[in-house]
Amino acid sequence: MTFRVRIAPSPTGNLHIGTARTAVFNWLFARHHHGTFILRIEDTDIERSRPEYTENILEGLRWLGLNWDEGPFFQTERLSIYKEAVQDLLDKGLAYRCYTTSEELEALRESQKARNQAPRYDNRHRNLTPEQEAEFKAEGRSFVIRFKIDDSREIVWNDLVRGEMVWRGSDLGGDMVIARSSEDGIGQPLYNFAVVVDDMDMQITHVIRGEDHIANTAKQILLYEAFGAKIPEFSHTPLILNMEGRKLSKRDGVTSISDFKKMGFTPEGLVNYMTLLGWSPPDSTQEIFTLEEAAKNFDFERVNKAGAKFDWAKLDWINSQYIHSMPVSKLTDMLIPFWSEAGYKFTETKERPWIEQLVALLQPGLARLTEAVDIAKMFSTETVEFDSEAIEQLQKEGVKSALQAVITALDSQQLGQINASNAKDIVQQVVKEQNVKKGLLMRSLRAALTGEMNGPDLIESWVLLNQNGSDKLRLQKAINP
Ligand code: GLU
């Protein structure tokens, strides 16, 4: 048997980290079993669904490397299939039209509340006579289609993450609405119904989704039975929690994949981290792996029931591992958009080798791509502003004359451009001639060339600045502010 799984996002918002993590588990499971991963867009909520969210979802999945084998299928293009299925249940007597008004439902809820009972529909229109129906229609009432739920039923499934799950029919809130009124008398399908019709039609063998869908699963199993269809396996994955143990929400900063992208995470690092949100590989010390490597080992035995805490420090660490080991040319391609957006001209004015040299210089210090914006700022202009620590350094005794000696040495090099070895020679030469401490000279050079007291390797930075004479301008400014 070929395993068939799906991710079924609703385009009512950007691709959420929780949905993306569910997509990761579906993808890993499909790849592990050489199965099929299907993408279905659940866009039946016409008011809240938007094409730009669909775009964001497709783009996010692609960016993360979660390629799908079939789809995207759109529920709005499948309405006639749902209508046929509704008709089928009506014909079998397993569903019926319910004309209860919202006022009547509200009154029912109030009376249940007053008796401290959980709200549920009391199935009052389950057995209407044709005359009663005709009367309600004549009153101009609209209807919904309800599917009959037997309160005495016990619904049991063996969840791949949570083991045996048992639900009672009486806990499902009475006969469930599967479609709303529409002019043709059959109705617009609702989520729980359309999902089952689609999962049957697409021959889904394993439904892998977040644990917030557990109550839906109980209802959906009854629908499979009503259609006489094979019930798939279910696997409910743990929620993603913040560090305080509450469900991760917008308040915790970002929640959508496009936000993570903007924050400077690499797709490989982010998807690697998401894989670990609830799953661990057999060798739990191994934390860095590709999706393909994870797929080899993936199974639900190693998925936790407990919620997975979202740990920013760990995500940063994993992301840094990908940045540090990435080929410089690939990292350059990834950083250029961030620099262009920051308005740094060197992305256009400099030759590629210079940019790559800069990237190689910054690479070991980066955990997020965005950090390269601040660090590269000093390379984006000809001169720099000195911060207060740098100013203090430049005012120290003997500093100005030492820096003047550096300028003289640079002039006498007649090299055009310096390399790291020339730069080190100049430092040695000035230390000797001027009788200054090497540490003092290096700190002063850093202050003069970068405007700050901390930053990437000084000699390499100098070599880069030297290539357009910016080093000399900065040294002059440090001497005569
Ligand atoms: N459209 C549902 C959601 O976004 C999918 C649920 C499912 O996977 O069955 O939560």
UniProtKB/TrEMBL annotation:
Domain Glutamyl/glutaminyl-tRNA synthetase class Ib catalytic: 4-317
Enzyme class: ligase
Keyword ATP-binding set for record: yes
Motif ('HIGH' region): 9-19
Binding sites annotated in the UniProt record for ATP: 250
Enzyme Commission no: 6.1.1.17
GO cellular component, one term: cytosol
Subunit structure: Monomer.
Free-text function comment from the UniProt entry: Catalyzes the attachment of glutamate to tRNA(Glu) in a two-step reaction: glutamate is first activated by ATP to form Glu-AMP and then transferred to the acceptor end of tRNA(Glu).
Record-given protein name: Glutamate--tRNA ligase
Species this protein is from: Plectonema cf. radiosum LEGE 06105
